[in-house]
Amino acid sequence: MYNPKSLKAEEFISHQEILDSLDYADKHKNNAELIDEVLKKARECKGLSHREALLLLDCDIPEKNEEIFALAEQIKKDFYGNRIVMFAPLYLSNYCVNGCVYCPYHAKNKHIARKKLTQEEIAKEVIALQDMGHKRLALEAGEDPVNNPIEYILESIKTIYGIKHKNGAIRRVNVNIAATTVENYRKLKEAGIGTYILFQETYHKESYEKLHPKGPKHNYAYHTEAMDRAMEGGIDDVGLGVLFGLERYRYEFAGLLMHAEHLEAVHGVGPHTISVPRIRRADDIDPSVFDNGIDDDIFAKLVACIRIAVPYTGMIMSTRESKACREKVIHYGISQISGGSKTSVGGYVKPEEEDDKSEQFEVSDTRTLDEVVKWLMELGYIPSFCTACYREGRTGDRFMALCKTKQIHNCCLPNALMTLKEYLEDYASPETKKVGEALIKAELNNIPKEKVRNIVCENLEEIEGGKRDFRF
Fold first, then answer.
1. How far apart are CA 196 and CA 185, in angstroms?
2. Residue 101 burial by CB count (10 A; 0-12/13-18/19+): exposed, middle or buried?
3. Mind listing the pLDDT tens digit for each residue in 183-218?
4. Torsion (CA) 226, 88, 338, 185 in degrees, nearest 10
């Protein structure tokens, strides 16, 4: 049944293949010689199969685990350097017809405050996000063909791109909405979206159907095959993810990597991003009800093994995770994080009252964007607000070709420094600006080409003088 080139969900995510792979990894998790062979292959930075990656995930040998974490950190540096891309979610509507038992937006929840932003309210939210310094958003909306039709999403995207406030502008809009048709994906592509993101939640079909007892999302195959329809519709950057805690993490890990293998086999390009959310408390949702939760140590190893298995793929960690967890895990493969996030509809303009909750989940990292930016820089990372690849057409196979050959550094480091400079000039606190100026000065020396370094220095001076939006 297992066929990564198939377009049928139950064939490219084969239940039996996952069970066989889990059994294989469990039997060989103490086989040092076999683990060394997999690590040797991994050091070539061309990725691993789901079965090979499972072996590393299950590895019980302490010194080999040290090698796994060290290799993940090195691969992250080789492909993405010390840059961390910043973004924020923007919740448009929490109207939803689905019955997902882990989400407070489920249709049976009658006491959550249902909200849908008007275009005027969206503009105010965008201005608030621009005033924080954000350039990249991820749109979120429940599935409701009456309240949240595709026309509403398209109009909202047009509104967001049209808002220019002071020096602010949203330069990339990623979209996380329910699985839809090829025709609608074409419309999203024409609207200028960046990445289409859709979390699988769980790859275990039986569990999936129980967790989604009613609504369009109940259809496992339609949901799981969405990325193929998105790519058929012209969207070449897609983002995968599971909600860890719903099912056994080893099963999800295997399914996630099989999905990545499928996209590579069929479309010639794997996922642009992989997200690693863990279930969190929310209105009428108690995460302790789900007995597959994972601790921070397992979470860190999941991130490390995903990074090793798909070295070219961006990895996203949201404010679901605490500052302490983010600081622990970020070294092992994370390339994008959110900052200053609100998971409620209209939350950036109007803080919620206790009896007017509309958030999808509780945020664990409640720091402002400025605090997160300063923290990253103090850890030695470059907070990047860059959107140049998307705007220059370096997407899909064009981005992956540069990334897999590690040539993306030639664009990314200069662009990261210039967009960070914009943030420091327009939005940073004095303390953050001081740390950032020192970081930029040091990082200029890491631009390998003298000609590029000279151009960046000239552009940095132009940014100080008031000009914006330089990019390679």
1. 9
2. middle
3. 999 999 999 999 999 999 999 999 999 999 999 999
4. 10
Q: Which residues lie closer than 8 Å to 33 by C-beta, 6 or more apart?
A: none
Measured CA to CA, the distance from residue 89 to residue 412 in angstroms comes to: 23
Eight-class DSSP state of 272: S
CA atoms within 13 A on the CB side of 426: 25
Residue with tokens 């448009």: 92
Residues 70-94: b if buried by 16+ CB within 10 A, e if exposed: ebbbebbeebbbbbbbbbbbbbbbb
- Quote the CA–CA distance of 443 and 439 in Å, as a whole number: 6
pTM of the predicted protein model? 0.93
Nearest one of 106, 118, 184 to 147, comparing CA atoms: 118
Give the end-to-end CA distance of the chain in Å, rounded to a whole number.
46
Q: Taking the alpha carbons of 149, 152, 158, 161 in that order, is the dihedral positive or negative?
A: negative
DSSP 85-137: EEEEEEEEE-------TT-TTSTT--SSPP-B--HHHHHHHHHHHHHHT--EE
Task: Quickly tell me which residue has 């009456």 as its tokens.
Answer: 146
The three-class DSSP label of residue 241 is strand
Distance CA 274, CA 64 (A): 25
For residue range 217-230, what is the model confidence (pLDDT) as tens digits? 999 999 999 999 99
Question: Could you give the CA distance from residue 289 to residue 282 in angstroms, rounded to a whole number?
Answer: 12
For 341, the token pair is: 């996030």
Measured CA angle at 303 (ends 325, 318), to 5 deg: 50
Residue 106 confidence class, pLDDT cut points 50, 70, 90: confident
Q: Give every CB contact of residue 289 below 8 A, 6+ residues apart in sequence.
A: none
Using CA atoms of 275, 280, 286, 290 in order, give the dihedral in degrees to the nearest 10.
Answer: 40
